[in-house]
Amino acid sequence: MQADLELFQKLSEKLITHEKQNGVVKPIKAEKLLDVLNLELSNEALNEDTFESLLEDIVLSTPRTSTKLFFNQLFGGRNSKATLGELLAVMLNNSMYTYKVGGPQVGIEKVIINKVCEMLNFGKNADGTFPPGGSMSNFMAMLMARDAYNRDIKFEGVSEKMIIYTSDASHYSITKNAMFGGIGIEQIRRIQTDEFGKMIPEALQKQIEKDIKDGLKPFFVNATAGTTVLGAFDDIDAISDITKNYKNLWLHVDGAYCGSVIFSKTYKYLVNGVESADSFSFNAHKMLNVPLSCSILITKEKHNLKHSFACQADYLYQTDGDEYNLGKTSLQCGRRNDALKFWTLWKSVGTAGLEQMVDQQFKLAQTARNYIESHSEYKLYSYEDSISVCFNYKNIDPKDLCNSLYEDGKLMVGYGEFQGITFVRLVAINSNNREEDILNFFKVMETYVEEKQLELVTT
Ligand SMILES: *Cc1c(COP(=O)(O)O)cnc(C)c1O
């Protein structure tokens, strides 16, 4: 073990040195991958030197998500305290289902959940869990809503047309979850968004009324706090004013992307009204820069978590009470420890430190918007209070631009689409970045376009 830990240290240091010199690796063509790297498995053991140099090749040719040139996804950066927690969790290798096996790690998970419940003002019956990602957080919320609507469904199955409401800019996990949960894609109502990408509450209200008139069963409304493309926040207050008029109509807030605004005094107004939701989820692996994955789901009434997810298993639950046997409220059985890495971060920087991370991202996004607005060859498509900055440059096809930047190993950035317009989406989510890193993004892109003489295509 000692030797492998030293190897880990050596490879990590090499990676960090390389990352500083090269924020992006030139990608290996997918069809060529098995020719370039010896990934195939065989009957014979590999000798130690070859193994080590192969590992080094793999590490150094893997896309870099932690550098100052990665703006491609809704995560990025490497927080050292959170990474430390993740490494320790791997060494400890607990499973979070029972106190007997998790010990203090169970306490760490519960402390985080309780603190978040408190911040949300969810009241004394609230509880939560760490699902395996934001999509699965949404799934668990939908299942709780389904089972709260009709407590016999878990025995009898779904036998009615139960209706889901979500905006047309919401995450695709809602669609997948409707498939998984026995609800069916046809039962999803995609509510229209306004020019800012927010769900139109009046359209929601009208649709619910129509469905009730048609004898259908509305049970789940999903509001998004930070839509995946524009980073828009649905008006939770206005939406909850509607949902509270209907019995058993569950309101979930999908804050996977930007729910972490709850940590910022300046930006938590973006989720005003969240205290009237039935459930709320956020990904600490997005705005809080915790390593993948770290998702938290909170629900107002813990009996709903128990009703949908607790099952008896005498071979597993043998000591301590259900309060400490977290498997009674989780989706899976064996469950990795996603809490420790968030806790090492939170404990070391304090809530004030988390707030600074969130605020820094909005500041970086503002820097990007300012740059775009003061340069006439750019067109901006996104708005204040979002950390997604969407734009086009010199009418260059955004798909060509992003793909060439990737293929030539210059910059990792992606494109998005909203209401029929495609644009580059710069995600200001790495709070290790400084304003000069954002300005450098534009410089790298502009220099590349000039050198490459990229064709101007009207978008
Ligand atoms: C990222 C995201 C998700 C999915 O989270 P995963 O952890 O990737 O499963 C869900 N909803 C929104 C709005 C997101 O941005």
Q: In percent terms, what proportion of residues is strand? A: 5-15%
CA(first)-CA(last) distance = 55 Å
Number of strands: 12
- As for the number of domains, it is 2
Shape: globular
Segments where pLDDT lies below 50 for 5+ residues? none
Salient structural properties:
7-stranded mixed β-sheet; 12 strands; Aspartate Aminotransferase, domain 2; alpha/beta
Spell out the blueprint of helices and strands.
Layout: H1 2-21, H2 33-36, H3 48-61, E1 70-71, H4 80-92, H5 99-102, H6 104-120, E2 127-129, H7 134-149, H8 153-156, E3 162-167, H9 173-180, E4 188-191, H10 201-213, E5 217-224, H11 236-243, E6 250-255, E7 279-283, E8 295-299, H12 302-309, H13 339-373, E9 378-380, E10 388-393, H14 398-407, E11 412-418, E12 421-427, H15 435-452
Parallel strand pairs: 1-11, 3-4, 3-5, 5-6, 6-7
Antiparallel strand pairs: 2-8, 7-8, 9-10, 10-12, 11-12
Helix pairs in contact: 1-3, 4-13, 6-13, 7-9, 7-12
Bound molecules: pyridoxal-5'-phosphate (PLP).
